[in-house]
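Before a colleague's protein record goes any further, I have to sign it off. I want your independent view on whether this chain really folds as the tokens say. The record follows directly below this note.
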Amino acid sequence: MARAAHPTRPAPVAGRRGPGGPAATPVYKTGAQAAGRGGGIGLLVLLGLLTAIGPFSLDTYLPAFPAMADDLDASQSQIQLSLTTCLIGMAAGQLVTGPLSDRWGRRRPVLIGLGAYALLSLACAVAPNAGLLAAVRFVQGFAGGTGVVVSRAVVRDLYAGRAAAKYFSRLTLVFGIAPVAAPSVGGLVLRFGSWRAVFVCLAVIGLLLAAAVAWRLPETLPVERRSSGGLAGTVRAMGSLLTDRVYLGYVLTQGLAFAALFAYISGSSFVFQDVFGVSGSTFGLIFGANALALVAVGQANARLLDRFTPRVLLLASLLVGVGAAVGVLGGAAADSLWPVAVALFVFVGTIGMVTPNSAALALDRHATHAGTAAALMGALQSVIGALAAPLVGLGGEGSALPMAVVLAGAAALSLVAALTLARSR
């Protein structure tokens, strides 16, 4: 297994043979050369913030759902549709941006995407109805997907194997703050303005990130390593990914786990506030505590990787997650707040171990097309996750069971994918 570049000692960045393709030519570089002026903590924070575009786009306006439904004269499922379209847009954006970043480098696509994201956030702020909001959210998600896919590709440019899994775990320290901060930021904005001001806040975030990328993000893909095959080369790369059973197994493992998480994200606001009657501030505390659990488990994962392989930790976290999902289902059936809240705390925590390990195991197989591999992984994750929101909404209002059923089903399927498709011969 390839090792990461040590901060002070040259090491090969890529050299693994992809399924059906030639071995990648090793490119030797030091950590300082790879990361340039954006190395160290600065690069870690910036990549974490780029990855956090997803949760900020999805979670910031969660406390505003009831107010949005009233203001736009829309149902719960119609408001949740804007979550679904944003996720689908992110999937499409990653599919386009990933291959482009393999050809153009990492910086240019993400700068264009962040500028567009800021403008489209302002368009969301003036949407007159739920239908148009959902449509604009699709394009906003498309633009925001650039940051998500490029951050993963940058990590794979610099690290491999356990080192990549460790770095992805460290990213949760930054990425995990977003679910904690986003609803709180949204709630704070709602104290001084309407839900439309939340999208103005997202526009400002997009502009600040664009400035940070222009200043601090190094180009981690040298010209000699860029793809030059055009559309035909992209199709060949996609073909090698789609015929790699183990890669697809890890992608589905992560995507289904994300679907379970997204069932919680899309349904928790209504479940806790409408079904169990907690206040908006209490909901923010519960949501924040769960996100902190994700961060803590992610940091524990980085340390445990010194003793266990990424796959062992992945399977262990999936087993615990399924057990917690069953607890959520039992608490929802009993219509009891605290069993649901405690089981969700445990389940969300396991995502901090599932995500870095599954991502590293999948991307480690395709170092020569890291952008395309990250794009397909992110796109499938977003599409699978997007299916969770309407399923939760279609289950009806006034009960926690629809959210619990979708969450438990997706968690169980994620474990099945890891045990079957992702199992190496």
Q: What stands out?
A: The chain has 17 helices and two strands. The mean pLDDT is 82. The radius of gyration is 20 Å.
